[in-house]
Write a structure and sequence with these properties.
Number of helices: 19
Bound molecules: adenosine-5'-diphosphate, magnesium ion
Largest sheet: 8 strands, mixed
Structural class: alpha+beta
Shape: elongated
């Protein structure tokens, strides 16, 4: 398509907004244009964090010489021409306003040459006015040079941060495109020094290796889901194994149909797959490409196109979560077992419906003294009580292997403990209040601006949850007592996330309601529970299973994830071809 000015009805339908906010947003627009032009190599150079100079050079198709002056006009685009096109944009840029907006606040030169032309055509625009145009020698492709961004616009210049901050943002943007397009070789040069260069071989793992280092590359697990499922959602990419993690979510990247998107729910879904596998406050590393039919995605939400909407959100999130979880569990090598959709039975449910005896009392009734070993000494079935689990051992420091009334049970140690702590705190809260523990050394929480009043007004609610806090200076809180269940650690981090969550909600009206309490208790339980990957003694496993048995709900953790997987004796026999006739 040749470049034309969009009719005003089309222009009006596109989310309006300033695309040029800072150097990184300029780089983003220019890189997208280069990708749309089919470039195999894109070089980004900046000086002064990009405020002084940005130069983006590509080896793409170039712009027909006659259209070069048109390209810098507002709503000039070769990518869409009607409202209908909007519904299925597959190119990255489509508003036809980037070059015009950049040229309006800088001195911008666009130089472009198509293969068949002898020379490149260029135009220079200064603060929105075309000041020069002509021909010059240049290789095939396009170069855009942006000098003195916002130099004559003090009101906008003052929003620029330090050179290093702006440079870091540019780097972030170029990194994301390198991850989104592994087949394109990206180079980033800042202050005449190479920041990185992606190999351009098409291998995402290699790009992650360049950006995050060889150790991360070693620790990556492939995630994959073909689109032959009913939702038609396909995805692939890499995630770090649970042993490799970072302090922030900055290492999580998502691409929807090759478009880098920021979507908190996607990060959340991915991190849910690591539930119980990572130390608290740590985050995985991931780059995931999702592919959906274009009509399932609304990309026209945000002017900078970073935010998108999914038509079928929950299908997207659950597909992501399931495939990541599967990739992670493969390493624990019980994936084959877990992948089988086994109904989760509650082995503790006795036929009579009566509360079954705790395991300890069985132990004391056996011939073998418990002190020798619990392993293999507890009879699974004692007359009249067919409702107990006999712990056989631990698998991958993550699952408790047990024998139950009908076959084998794998109990997720983290989720089981979560359930136990959750119900324990619920019970304590109903009768007199959640048991507290005084911290030997009070811990300090830094509050974000505005959280101080929130914290004070929350004190009674926090007390009800087992926290004793007091103001400490202008921006911090002293935590003196925490719920006893969390005495082992994690209390402060939980409190921090409670504040963050509250601050995000416009109204705190819902904070007193049952659902909110349940959610907070669930996250307290999660932080306080033993982690996956932790070795447990027989005694500890026995204790945990016994306490789980006393819970009112045993088959699901507070987040409604299965606590155990059951393999019936029949299923096991079948595996061995020993069907009973
Ligand atoms: P949009 O990308 O939304 O169409 P832009 O203002 O970014 O609008 O660019 C205007 C037009 O200029 C594009 O539609 C495209 O035809 C052309 N163009 C811009 N940059 C390049 C490039 N690097 N290579 C080839 N063509 C380009
Ligand atoms: Mg564009």
């Amino acid at each position: 398509m040749s470049i034309t000015i969009l009719p005003s009805d089309v222009a009006a339908k596109i989310a309006a907004g300033e695309v040029v906010e800072r150097p990184s947003s300029v780089v983003k627009e220019l890189v997208e244009n280069a990708i749309d032009a089919g470039a195999g190599s894109i070089r980004v150079e900046i000086k002064g964090g990009g405020a002084q100079l940005i130069r983006v050079t590509d080896d793409g198709c170039g712009i027909p010489s006659a259209e070069v002056p048109l390209a810098v006009e507002r709503y000039a685009t070769s990518k869409i021409s009607s409202v209908d096109d909007l519904a299925r944009v597959s190119t990255l840029g489509f508003r036809g306003e980037a070059l015009a907006s950049i040229g309006a606040v800088s001195e911008m030169t666009l130089i472009s040459r198509q293969r068949q032309e002898k020379a490149a055509r260029y135009v220079t625009v200064h603060n929105g006015r075309m000041v020069e145009e002509g021909w010059r020698g240049a290789p095939t492709g396009t170069t855009v040079v942006v000098k003195g961004l916002f130099r004559d616009f003090p009101a906008r210049r003052k929003f620029l941060r330090s050179i290093s901050t702006e440079a870091a943002q540019v780097s972030q943007v170029v990194c994301q495109y390198a991850l989104a397009f592994p087949e394109i070789r990206f180079s980033l040069i800042s202050e005449d020094r190479y920041v990185f260069q992606s190999p351009g071989t098409g291998c995402l793992r290699e790009v992650m290796g360049v950006l995050y280092g060889p150790e991360v590359e070693q620790a990556l697990r492939a995630v994959e889901m073909a689109d032959d499922n009913p939702t038609a959602i396909a995805l692939d990419g890499f995630v770090s194994d649970p042993g490799t993690h970072r302090a922030t979510r900055a290492y999580l990247s998502f691409f929807v149909n090759r478009r880098w998107v920021r979507n908190r729910a996607l990060s959340f879904a991915l991190e849910e797959a690591y539930h119980g596998l990572l130390p608290e406050g740590r985050h995985p590393i991931a780059a995931i490409h999702l592919r959906l039919p274009p009509e399932e995605v609304d990309v026209n939400v945000h002017p900078a196109k970073l935010e998108i909407r999914f038509l079928h959100e929950s299908a997207v999130y659950s597909t992501l979560q399931r495939s990541v979880r599967q990739a992670l569990l493969e390493g624990i090598s019980v994936s084959a077992l877990l992948a089988q959709p086994v109904p989760v039975l509650d082995p503790f449910q006795s036929d009579t419906g009566a509360q079954s005896l705790p395991l300890e009392s069985h132990a004391s009734s056996t011939m073998t003294p418990p002190s020798t070993s619990y392993l293999g000494k507890l009879p699974a079935v004692i007359a009249g009580h067919s409702s107990s689990l006999r712990v056989l051992g631990q698998l991958g420091n993550t699952f408790i292997v047990a024998e139950g009334p009908d076959g084998m049970y794998l109990v997720d140690q983290h989720r089981a403990h979560e359930r136990v702590l959750f119900e324990q705190m619920q019970a304590e809260r109903r009768g007199g209040g959640i048991a507290r523990q005084v911290l030997l050394e009070p811990e300090v929480i830094e509050l974000k601006p505005g959280h101080r009043e929130l914290a004070e007004s929350m004190a009674p609610l926090l007390a009800d949850l087992g926290f004793l806090v007091e103001p400490f200076g202008e921006r911090s809180l002293l935590v003196r007592e925490v719920p006893a269940a969390l005495a082992g650690g994690g209390a402060t981090a939980t409190l921090q996330s409670i504040f963050d969550e509250l601050a995000e909600r416009a109204d705190n009206a819902a904070t007193g309601d049952v659902e909110w309490h349940e959610r907070v208790l669930a996250s307290l339980a999660c932080r306080g529970a033993i982690k996956s990957g932790q070795a447990l003694t027989q005694l500890e496993m026995h204790e945990l299973v016994t306490r789980l048995e006393r819970c009112s709900v045993r088959s699901l953790c507070p987040h409604a994830e299965p606590v155990m997987v059951h393999l019936s004796e029949n299923a096991i026999r079948r595996q061995f071809g020993r069907e009973q006739g």
